[in-house]
Amino acid sequence: xxxxxGGGSLINSLKxxxxxxxxxxxxxxRCLQAVQxxxxxxxxxxxxVVLDSGGGAAAAPLRGALAPQRLRGGLTPACAILRxxxxxxxxxx
Length: 93
Hints:
The protein has helices at about 5-15, 60, 75-85, and strands at about 35, 40-45.
């Protein structure tokens, strides 16, 4: 799935122990990890997958694949977000 969406936290909750590392930013899970939940249930925690969509410099930060601290400039992702928003219609008094 996508990075930084809570897969490790979900596994830890189901396991009721700290079986997977978790953090507030992407890149905490570095390799595949199998966690035995019950007799016949094994869950896999793996790094997130982000497919290249050709979205340019804004694609990785908007998909959670790049930590905000690693951005060289926040203007490109911010402009990409604003382009997705509808223009204001009408005004106030």
